[in-house]
Fold these 4 entries.
Entry 1:
Amino acid sequence: MMTIALLLAAQAAEVHGPSLDTFKPFVGACWRADFSAQVQDTHCFDAMYGGAHVRDRHEVQEGGKTVYAGETVYSADGPDLVFTYFNSLGGVGQGKVGAADRLLGFTGTMRPSPDKPEQSIDSEWRILDADHYEVRSLVKSPSGEAAPVLKFSRVKEPVGR
């Protein structure tokens, strides 16, 4: 009897694939990081289609004016968590998400705008606590320098809705 229960549990895990629960700490909230005193990036996360997907809409504002925006949709696709990204410049990106404990890893490619060459995406998000997470790009700049770590904090007011 125990063997049958274990087999059924394993089959159920295979059928359902990865879980979007990875994004549960973010859903229903907006998060903001300061690039500088005048430039902020705000991300708002929502469940889509009853939780079948997760949407992350973001806006970069300079002096209170939106200068860039994008949207990422996270989905379970077979054994993988995947993302598709679109931005206000016409750019498109896609890739995979890996999750372990309080760390999410993102790999893929992105074309910032239709006329720009494809770039690598390799970054990680580290959940610090219920109200903060850090984002670190693992792609080196052309000069070989590491990108700064951005600390996002939960904000109360929705942005761009």
Entry 2:
Amino acid sequence: MLFGKLLPREGNFFEMFNEHGRCIAEGARAFMAMVQYYDDPMLREKYGAEVDAAEKAADRVTADVNRLLHKTFITPLDREQIHSLINGMDDILDLLQDSYEVMSLYDLKHLSEDVTRLGEISVRCCERVQHAVTLLPKLSQPSVAEAALKTCEEIDRLESDADRVMRSAMSKLFRDNIDVRELIKLKAVYEHLESISDACEDVANLIEGIVLENS
């Protein structure tokens, strides 16, 4: 199966992956801006709306990919790989949106430094996912395949960083003398934020498998 081959009138799966990757990166940056300006209700709402918009745009791309998958006889990747990859990518934006909604629903008044640190790691993971996806059409080139694997390794390291920040944040929560309600709220926020890097690692593992099979 030729990598990156297009069927007439059937569109381009790789272009759709790239479009979704852009949504992930834009949603992550909007989420981080929301965190940075959290104390300003108007800016918080503005950037939160941008997260929602990115998630909805990504949902449309995911639906388009799944529809195209059913209509296309020859695909540039294994069908299961395409399905798993686009839905794994969609999970990332769902978790970004969920994290924002948890903060709003729990009516958090202020965010801790650990929320900021986890948010920053999430953005870096999302940007690395976007970069890895752009390399998929040219995996037949050894240098590109190597770059894709390196990017996946970077995502793995970032996920490990998020785990360490999460453990430290949880330790402080239960060690410091804070209101129980705030403890419960922050614990939920930390868990949601850490799950973003987990989802990015899941996508990285999928991409790594695609690289090894198609390079």
Entry 3:
Amino acid sequence: MAVIKIIPSKGRIKNIINYVLNKEKTDSRIISGMSCSLQNAVDEMNTTKELYGKTDGISYHHIIQSFKPGETDPEKAHRIGKELAKKEFKNHEVLVVTHIDKGHIHNHLVVNSVSFRDGLKLVSNKETLREIKRESNRICNRENLSIIKGSRSERSYSMAEYKLAEKGMPIWKEQLRSAIDEAKENSKNLVELKEYLKENFNIDMKVQNKNLSFLHPEKKKYCRGKKLGYAYTKEEIVRFFEKDPQRNMVNPGLPYRKADFRVPEIKSPNIGLSRIAPGIESIASKISRDIEKEKIRVEKKKERLLRSREKQVAGNRERER
């Protein structure tokens, strides 16, 4: 039973790739790059954005493909994930990573939002999700793996939520869980967690005395963390941050105060215009030099990227023969 969900994000590609490559969740045998190298996936994806001038907006699409416990092994699941990536995202760089740390094996596909072939952005909507699910179901049918039939195939939830969904549990909660999981890995405390969720997923987080609450962008009411599971309570999330003493010296368990976000007042030194003006020309010259250096750096990256593409295409053609 393969379940698909897709999460578009404005976050940094480096953060999500670091998350999916966590050694406690996977190993080198079940990690693959499609149209990108494993060692330079972050640079190659960012270079594609720079080449086409599309560094803003949605940065990547995070697809999760979950399988029924005990129905497949990591290597087979990984092959299925690679085939799905090749079929659905042939013009995009994709990192395919299989996680084996939970009760159900699942694939993570990190898809660059910008196509390396024509610079077009990947559109993520209900039809996109339906198409990805159809292809996933086709592959699973061929491999004699069970799939979700009927209207349920139009819904987005993980294997862990499947039986609960049958009982009427709202599946948007799994989207909250996935976003929080990623945000935790890229935050040092509750303040950063709140900022990451808002910036990358448009999820609001409210901190209360004993609870955390989260507002899904499509909902009008907050959902308490304990409704998502024990791991999403304030107590457990604070414990997660405190496991690593280097994460932050600030006590992450404290509730927010306005003082936490106060910008300190900076008193400007008494410098006359006659002392400032002579430096403007040198600053402008430095900026101009930096711009030229950046242009050269991007052009060199473009050349390396094109050479890499040519070698990969040639290698693929040779293997097909």
Entry 4:
Amino acid sequence: MKRGQYKLSPFSVMPLKIKTRCGWCTSDPLYIEYHDKEWGRPLHDDRLLFEFLILEGAQAGLSWLTVLKKRENYRKAFDGFDAAKIARYGDKKVKELLNNEGIIRNRLKIASTIANAKAFLAVQKEFGTFDKYIWQFTGHLPVKNHVTHYKKLPAKTPVSDAMSRDLKKRGFNFTGSTICYAFMQAVGMVNDHSTDCFCYLEGSNKK
């Protein structure tokens, strides 16, 4: 073999490029998929916005991963998060939900889901879409923050405070400012991916 030449082993491989993700993202495949494909990406679908609003409220006092693992069960139990159907739930349906081991069986959270469905429909009637109403709090554009570490993320902001006050005034429950900010992060109203995360670098805040 001439000088300067080399032979690659048949077992040689190119080094893999590891994606850098936000520090809060665990190694759980479900969490990774949620982080990579949903969290922080602008969402404008009314049904999905309602779903996230309900799930964020259901999370109160629990971990988000716990809710994610029950997400499909929630979709089945709550008619695909069809607000019009949920708004008509009566005592029989509530009893059925309280016996459903696939969801978080909290009477107050179930009752709030029904109340929120009614409030959601009222907002749609007034604004045309819930999307148009909720995105007004950020001027209908995502806010791109420049967070270097997830522990520096705020639990709430003046915008989430204002959103919380208005939602409560309209009859929504389980919509405190902290829950509202988590909702804003989830549906991409704010881009809180850390600056070294590949989602941030991809420009996931684009509308």
